[in-house]
Amino acid sequence: MQLDVVIFGGGAAGLWILDRLARQGHSVVLLEAGELGAGQTIASQGIIHGGLKYALQGLMNRSAASISEMPLVWRASLLGQRSPCLTNTRLRSGACYLWRTENWSSRLGMLGARLALQVQPEALSADETPDVLRHGTSTVFRLGEQVICPKSFVNDLYEQHSERILKIDAAHGLAFEIDSPGETRAIRLQSPDGSRELVLKPRHVVLAAGRGNRELRGMLGLSRETMQTRPLKMVVARGSLPELHGHCIDGAKTRVTITSDCSESADGRTVWQIGGQLAEDGVAYDDETQLTRAIAEIRDVLPGLDLTGVEWSCYRVDRAEKATTDGQRPEGIQTLCAGNVTTAWPTKLALAPVLADEVASRIGDPRETASWNGTEIADWPRPEVSRFPWELPEARWFGTDELDSTPSVTRRAA
Length: 414
Ligand SMILES: Cc1cc2nc3c(=O)[nH]c(=O)nc-3n(C[C@H](O)[C@H](O)[C@H](O)COP(=O)(O)OP(=O)(O)OC[C@H]3O[C@@H](n4cnc5c(N)ncnc54)[C@H](O)[C@@H]3O)c2cc1C
Description:
The chain is built from 11 helices and 19 strands. It is of the alpha+beta class.
């Protein structure tokens, strides 16, 4: 099958690139090895950042500044006013709250961030402040960073492009024919049930497989060392919790970032995903210790919140990015080009539109002779959309009482 482009990976990056190229008239397919969004996208908090984190750290340079436009770009897509049309993506919230730990460095961090941001935080009056944030003494701000439900986002793009999205068995049913490192002539696929074979001959290959890019680059004769992973241990709480989306700031750091999911699978409970510094530091601790730390942190940043009956769980996940010299987060989107292969990392879900523009401009116009005809792949297996990490059967839950009665623990993870 002759194609303009084959994309590997159906997370935020691959799906947005697929939409962009398909609308431009490219003959393009996307290959997914697991479930769509598995890895980072489904595990993410879904915040369409406008640069708060960069601004707090004084890093609002030119490339980081591209993120400041993202809330407006996504808003237009969510309203169906630009491509991709994301009107079936669930908006969890139109804004995030910001509140801070009461100290001087925190005040300065917040002030610096306000000077650098395009979408400015607005101070809330006492009446406008949600109950859950009323017990602290600091001012609460509202910041126009939307929060989307990542599962509905992945599903939205899948439904629009399912005819172009194929499930593959990357371990046993994938082989490349290359002329030289990165110069791909053909991709040989065997369907996951072993019943069919397909040979794709693309002009371009895009690797947008998150941490899977490492292995794919190796198969294409390209360096695996050009990417890094940075782990997080995220905390999840479920129960009769208020719906809250926001960041508690301490100096240049986000002490915790809380987002809420109230989808049907939550059975009428609110599910809080808790990230920020708590999750960055949490990889050093075993699960129970991390959850005990989380309870202490939540009691400190949200005094007065009743945690009776709340259940706690955590999950570990790696952020996959292009390697940086100091191992820290790269600035903005990242791409690497070799032969006819582009490797792409968005660095942030929010930056998927910028990455798609960059990849599309490298690939250029569709070839006039290559027109899309999906009949050859119409009955090839399709992937599922991934479940949230807390919906997986292996998620272990602990009650607040159970963790409160655990002796003060500081166990490091094995
Ligand atoms: C806990 C957490 C919270 C986050 N919160 C936010 C946030 O609030 N806002 C924000 O902007 N960013 C956030 N991020 C960052 C954001 O999630 C990522 O930058 C973004 O989702 C990366 O998307 P991706 O498509 O590159 O990779 P992924 O989402 O990891 O998708 C990779 C896809 O490739 C597939 N795949 C893997 N190997 C292969 C292979 N060999 N062949 C084919 N397919 C393959 C996987 O199954 C998967 O579907 C967060 C990240 C984490 C980990």
